[in-house]
């Protein structure tokens, strides 16, 4: 038997453990996690807090007993004090009491995820300032939203989590202030022509937006609870609750002094999820991932990427050489009925990475004008000027056009050119689309 110790029992760790347990009977699998629960779908927190779903129970998709039934050992509420990489030993500490113990391994998989970024500003430790990452964080925010004295909620950060929890707070009847140092929301995923649509959507639902504003201080009352947000410009806003959603950093505490790191501190891994130590693998939010749009390593913290990288790690540990095919960072958001989806690079992100791109836009009704149920669709396709390969796409509509982004994801993965896309065989039926499909029309509009 070969023993694999997995540190971190959420999406990447779970995917790797199931891969090993379901396919490799010669593998002994041990999971270690600090938390009391596993498999929480954090992307559903805002749905639960905003009362768009009845409760949180459906946000867990597996449990400790499921792994034990497959023969795995799993230690929850257990901290890893340190790792002896030379001796291949993991030193563990039960958080609920009991003696420390050591686990020896043949292979080690780090799936320690990411941790919320906490800005180092005065007042950061005041009561009433929360993050959204773990299930317990969602519970805390939900309890705060239930307090009648909590009337004004400040959301710091207008990325996906920030915008989603802002919607949730509004649905709970709160006054909502959204702050972001960037000039618009969702800046990491969309160009201004698309993010501005979400900005207008938020304004239409009476959210107070403060973009281009950096929060520099929190102030509190006599009881040590936050009651004011102060910006770098000296503007002060009265609040009853602060939710910090400015982003995450890779949790590299256990390996940062031993393993090679990416620019942001993530563990550098190859296409087989192997780190600079051949006995150590890493997957999920703590590790790099290969971008097909960039043709190189990058960092994209998404649960979907965590699952895929966990599966790849599991097979390679089990003895099947499997190379990751890379990702595009496909993503989407739906707020107050407006749907945005994207994949690959935006025009702005391409410039940051030094990729010289052009783009083509198109906007039209999704279906022929004679169809009673209809919505506008806006699309942008981004392509590299030199090779003309597609490197990104963005769509916006009140209709569900999300499935189209999967086709663009595959196009980026397979290095399809914008010219091939313009002649793609796309069917027409009035129930679904126009005879001149918006994808075709956008591709034909490329220079």
From TrEMBL:
<keyword id="KW-0560">Oxidoreductase</keyword>
<feature type="domain" description="FAD/NAD(P)-binding">
    <location>
        <begin position="3"/>
        <end position="310"/>
    </location>
</feature>
<protein>
    <recommendedName>
        <fullName>NADH oxidase</fullName>
        <ecNumber>1.6.3.4</ecNumber>
    </recommendedName>
</protein>
<keyword id="KW-0274">FAD</keyword>
<keyword id="KW-0676">Redox-active center</keyword>
<dbReference type="InterPro" id="IPR023753">
    <property type="entry name" value="FAD/NAD-binding_dom"/>
</dbReference>
<dbReference type="Pfam" id="PF02852">
    <property type="entry name" value="Pyr_redox_dim"/>
</dbReference>
<feature type="domain" description="Pyridine nucleotide-disulphide oxidoreductase dimerisation">
    <location>
        <begin position="337"/>
        <end position="433"/>
    </location>
</feature>
<dbReference type="InterPro" id="IPR058076">
    <property type="entry name" value="NOXase"/>
</dbReference>
<dbReference type="InterPro" id="IPR050260">
    <property type="entry name" value="FAD-bd_OxRdtase"/>
</dbReference>
<keyword id="KW-0520">NAD</keyword>
<keyword id="KW-0558">Oxidation</keyword>
<keyword id="KW-0285">Flavoprotein</keyword>
<dbReference type="InterPro" id="IPR016156">
    <property type="entry name" value="FAD/NAD-linked_Rdtase_dimer_sf"/>
</dbReference>
<dbReference type="Pfam" id="PF07992">
    <property type="entry name" value="Pyr_redox_2"/>
</dbReference>
<dbReference type="InterPro" id="IPR036188">
    <property type="entry name" value="FAD/NAD-bd_sf"/>
</dbReference>
<dbReference type="GO" id="GO:0016491">
    <property type="term" value="F:oxidoreductase activity"/>
</dbReference>
<comment type="similarity">
    <text>Belongs to the class-III pyridine nucleotide-disulfide oxidoreductase family.</text>
</comment>
<dbReference type="InterPro" id="IPR004099">
    <property type="entry name" value="Pyr_nucl-diS_OxRdtase_dimer"/>
</dbReference>
């Amino acid at each position: 038997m070969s023993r694999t110790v997995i540190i971190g029992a959420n999406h990447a760790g779970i995917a790797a453990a199931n891969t090993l347990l379901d396919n490799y009977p010669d593998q002994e699998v041990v999971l270690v996690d600090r938390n009391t629960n596993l498999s929480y779908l954090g992307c559903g927190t805002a749905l639960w807090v905003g009362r768009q779903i009845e409760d949180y129970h459906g946000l867990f998709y597996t449990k400790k007993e499921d792994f034990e039934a497959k023969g795995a050992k799993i230690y929850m509420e257990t901290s890893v004090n340190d790792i002896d990489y030379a001796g291949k030993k993991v030193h563990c500490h039960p958080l609920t009491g009991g003696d420390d113990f050591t686990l020896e391994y043949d292979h080690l998989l780090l799936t320690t995820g990411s941790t919320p970024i906490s800005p180092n500003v005065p007042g950061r430790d005041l009561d009433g300032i929360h993050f959204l990452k773990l299930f317990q964080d969602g519970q805390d925010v939900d309890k705060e939203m239930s307090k009648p004295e909590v009337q004004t909620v400040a959301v710091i950060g207008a990325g996906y989590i920030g915008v989603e929890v802002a919607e949730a707070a509004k649905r709970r009847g709160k006054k909502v202030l959204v702050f972001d140092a960037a000039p618009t929301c969702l800046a990491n995923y969309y160009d201004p022509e698309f993010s501005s649509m979400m900005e207008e959507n938020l304004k239409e639902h009476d959210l107070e937006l403060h973009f281009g504003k950096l929060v520099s201080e929190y102030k509190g009352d006599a009881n040590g609870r936050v009651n004011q947000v102060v910006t770098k410009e000296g503007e002060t806003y009265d609040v009853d609750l602060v939710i910090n959603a400015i982003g995450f950093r890779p949790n590299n505490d256990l390996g940062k002094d031993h393993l090679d790191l990416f620019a942001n501190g993530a563990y550098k891994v190859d296409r087989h999820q192997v780190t600079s130590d051949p006995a150590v693998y890493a997957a999920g939010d703590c590790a790099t991932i290969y971008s097909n749009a960039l043709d190189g390593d990058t960092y994209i913290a998404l649960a979907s990427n965590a699952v895929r990288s966990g599966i790849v790690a599991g097979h390679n540990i089990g003895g099947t050489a499997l190379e990751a095919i890379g990702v595009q960072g496909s993503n989407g958001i739906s707020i107050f009925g407006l749907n945005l989806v994207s994949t690959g690079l935006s025009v702005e992100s391409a410039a940051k990475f030094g990729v010289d791109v052009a783009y083509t836009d198109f906007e039209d009704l999704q279906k022929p004008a004679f169809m009673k149920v209809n919505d506008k669709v806006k699309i942008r396709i981004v392509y590299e000027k030199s090779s003309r390969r597609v490197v990104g796409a963005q769509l916006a509509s009140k209709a569900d056009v999300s499935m189209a982004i999967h086709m663009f994801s595959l196009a980026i993965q397979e290095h399809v050119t914008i010219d091939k896309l313009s002649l793609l065989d796309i069917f027409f039926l009035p129930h679904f689309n126009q005879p001149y499909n918006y994808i075709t029309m956008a591709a034909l509009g490329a220079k």
